[in-house]
Amino acid sequence: MKKVKVMSLISIVLIISMLAACSGGSSEKTSKDDKKLTAWAWNINVPVLEAAAERFKKENPGFELEVIEIGREDVYSKLTTGLQAGGQGLPDIVLVEDDRIQGYAESYPKAFLDLSKYGFDEHKDKFPASKTDLLTVNNKVVGFPFDGGPTGVFYRSDIFEEAGVKAEDIQTWDQFVEAGKAIKEKTGKPMLGLDLNNDDGLYRMMMNQQGSLYFDEKDELTLSSQESMNAAKVIKQLKDEGLVKNTVGWDAWISAMVSGEVATAPSGAWLTGSITGQGKDTSGKWGVIPFPAFEEGGNRASNLGGSNYVIMNSTDKKQEAYDFLEFFSTDEETQLEAMKGGLFPTLNTIYDEPIFTEKQEFFSGQPIWSTFTAQMDSIPSVNYTGNYSLAMDESIKAQSESVSGKKTMKEAYKAAEKRLENRIK
Amino acid sequence: MSQTRIIPYLFIAPAVILFLVFTAYPIFSSLLLSFQTFEAGEYSFTGFDNYVTLFHDEIFHKALMNTFIIFIVQVPIMLILALVLSSVLNSGLLRLKGFFRVSFFLPTVTSLVAYSILFSIMLQEEGIINTVIGFLGIEAIPWLSDSFWAKASIILAMTWRWTGYNMVIFLAALQNISNDMYEAASLDGAGKIRQFFSITIPQLKPVILFAGTLSTIGTLQLFDEPFNLTKGGPADSTMTLGLYIYQNGFEFFQFGYASAIAYIVVVLVGILTFIQFKVAGDR
Predict the structure, then answer these.
(1) Is the pLDDT of residue A20 over 70?
(2) To probe the interface with B, which of A248, A402, A411 has the most B CB atoms within 10 Å?
(3) What residues are paired with A366 via a beta bridge?
(4) CB contact under 8 A, B235 and A397
(5) Residue to test with chain A: of B22, B62, B145, B259, most A Cβ within 10 A
(6) Which pLDDT band holds residue A323 (cuts at 50, 70, 90)?
(7) Could you report the predicted ipTM of this complex, rounded to two decimals?
(8) Which of B13, B41, B253 sits opposite A15 (nearest CB)?
(9) Going by C-beta distance under 8 Å and a sequence separation of 6 or more, which residues neighbour residue B202?
(10) Is A35 helix (H, G, I), strand (E, B) or coil?
(11) Cα(A163)–Cα(A184) distance, rounded to whole angstroms?
(12) Helix axis angle, A45-59 relative to A318-330, nearest 10°?
């Protein structure tokens, strides 16, 4: 019988230890090391965070930051799962993009630390209003602004030259379409690549440019608004005139650009990093102009993308995390480093640095950074709302139906607005 | 005495506990979740609300329809192809059997995401597939941007990946069919084709049923291909139940609604499997 007792004891111990392993794990890890912070971020953001942590450590001995590199989409999956589980398994700091942050802040009101309680307001004027407005949700400041995406039309100067079209002369979207026709006629090349069935980036930029997005400042739907029709009309025109190359996915889009198959790419400033990286041998064949306006003299500033650092409310090192991110967000050296990686800083105290007026060899000697900084104060603040993802889903469908001619433009956007209304009820 | 009675339970305890924690609990809690809605960080019980919404949800209907179309078209194509391939590979006429078996099975072991991305590159408007059919004088096909062709692309990709898997199942079963039957049949004057329909297929019936059931479940849960190839587009024409569950949960934060859809899928799998057993099963 003794053997039996021993065996049963062993099994019990095994079971208990197994259960303990299941339940305790993650929360223990994050709370034990007294001063060590963890952060989730992706790509170029990782070395920028690490370098900043090293500098911060000099003044704050014992400070420790562990940056866990996770792919952009995976960060959101993990963040959502952690928030669903009531804040378990989450790090102290997370990088969240502009278009996602209000969705999280509204769906999970307790997810992010309210930075205004820790004194963020004193830094507010160091960032553009479009950014601080974005980060103020229900009177709470939910994140530190990091990079932004002031927009521009990146163009291949060699193709423009070949067609005899002057990019600087493009002031309005009508002129953009006309230029596209001329280029198509002379060189046979389409004006731009778009993923009309899966992405509505150009539409969003055009909406932002006109001061709204899928919702106006009163949370009213705008899919069938005049602004929306303006934007959709240009996109349909481009498609109907044969000026669009259908590029499915990011890789196809970017490679169409660098291999010179299309003449332009309207996008955020961060595209600079990708085209200089992937199109090294195309140096000197590029230029950037601000977004064309919808009418002569209209607003030419808009935004696409950008990201922010949030502190999770579930952390027990709120003050430490705040102190570090306060340093990170306002430290000029850090922001300049991020810029080398192709990110466009929103910290406006550094816009007088020499790099912003330097001529860029890659862009045929154009000082492109000043083209972007010039718009920073005119980018309209827009209301993403918690229903942004749903709205984008419907907007893409409307765009797809509108350009394919299945429905007229107005019908397509009206129907999408109706569907969206039902879905957010 | 009582001590010895406990022993077997202790031995099965790890498996039972793991099952309870990782299978039974999620099943139960997602059932509960399907009766709740999520509003501003809090869950609240709303009875059958999610199911009622589902009933009127156009996208859900569309996803159901798409899944059904893919199921009706893809599963038979794939199973017939697998059956033919396995019979050919099992016959004595072929050389390099091992090479062919491995080649056909290889797609099954490739990563889902990697192959989806490869397909999305090949199916671009100026991709390799359109280039090749261009040589044959066929006009470029909008593989991923037309609602009909997008479905066709998904079916193509799924067939490429899963035919080899079913082929291996059939091959294993074929090797269990006694050669005596074929010999007897050929003595009676039955040709190869007659043998295939009169011996091979009846003998394989339970295995075909098994493969059919697995494929049914697989199709109803279809996610990777539309997620990576088309994102459900254009205009929801490749939206599947699996993808819609994911979107509702992880993009729109409606885990309650997502759970409700998942439960509908469970019911559908049950019904379809039941029908298959009724139609095909003898016992």
Answers:
(1) no
(2) A248
(3) A360
(4) yes
(5) B145
(6) very high
(7) 0.76
(8) B13
(9) none
(10) coil
(11) 8
(12) 110
Measure the CA–CA gap between A271 and A293, rounded to whole angstroms: 21
Beta bridge partners of A38: A66
> Which residues of chain B make contact with A110, given a CB cutoff of 8 A?
41
Alpha carbon separation from A281 to A145, A161, A258, A277 (Å, rounded): 34, 18, 9, 10
**Residues A354-408: tens digit of each pLDDT:** 888 889 899 989 999 999 999 988 999 998 888 888 899 899 999 999 998 888 9
Q: Which amino acid is at A31?
A: S
3-state secondary structure of B233: coil
Which are the contacts of A105, defined by CB distance < 8 A and separation ≥ 6? A111, A112, A137, A138, A140, A142, A386
The dotted CATH code for B58-280 is: 1.10.3720.10
Percent of chain A with pLDDT over 70: 92
Interface contact A248-B14, CB threshold 8 A: no
Q: Walk me through the domains of chain A, giving residue ranges and CATH numbers.
A: 29-148+305-356 (3.40.190.10), 150-304+368-424 (3.40.190.10)
Domain positions in chain B are 58-280
Q: What is chain B's Cα-based Rg?
A: 23
Q: Which residue has the higher pLDDT, A116 or B42?
A: A116
Q: Using a CB–CB cutoff of 8 Å, tell me whether B282 touches chain A.
A: no
**Residue for token pair 């080649």:** B103
Instruction: Please report the number of interchain residue pairs, chain A to chain B, with beta-carbon separation below 8 angstroms.
Output: 87
Q: Which chain A residue lies closest to B144 (C-alpha atoms)?
A: A248
**Contact at 8 Å (CB) between A129 and A158?**
no
Residue of A11, A108, A198 with shortest CB distance to B231: A198
DSSP symbol at B140: P
From residue A294, alpha-carbon distances to A233, A291, A302 in Å are: 11, 9, 12
The kind and range of the H/E element at A300 are none
pLDDT tens digits for A173-182? 999 999 999 9
Give residues 13 to 72 of A whose Cβ lies within 8 Å of B: 14-15, 18-19, 22
Q: How does DSSP assign B172-198, residue by residue?
A: HHHTTS-HHHHHHHHHTT--HHHHIII
Q: Which residues contact B4 (CB under 8 A, 6 or more apart)?
A: A4
Give mean pLDDT, residues A278-295. 91
> How many helices (H) and strands (E) in chain B?
14, 2
The two three-digit tokens of residue A229, written as one number: 């029709």
CA distances from B14 to A4, A264, A337, B21, B120 (A): 17, 61, 52, 11, 43
Q: Which residues between 221 and 240 in chain B have a beta carbon less than 8 angstroms from any beta carbon of chain A?
A: 230-231, 233-236
Tell me the shortest Cα–Cα distance from B119 to chain A, in angstroms.
12
Q: Which residues of B touch A19 (CB under 8 A)?
A: 17
pLDDT of residue A27: 43
**∠ Cα A20 A83 B116 (to 5°):** 95
- Asked if B145 has any chain A CB less than 8 Å from its own CB, the reply is yes
Please report where in the chains the tokens 């205009």 appear, as a residue: B235
Is A107's Cβ below 8 Å from some Cβ in B?
Answer: yes
Backbone angles phi, psi at A149, to 5 degrees: -135, 60
Is the CB of residue A242 less than 8 Å away from at least one CB of chain B?
Answer: no
- Number of residues written out for chain B: 283
In this structure, chain A runs to a length of 425
Question: Which residues, in sequence order, are bridge partners of residue A112?
Answer: A312
The DSSP secondary-structure symbol of A147 reads E
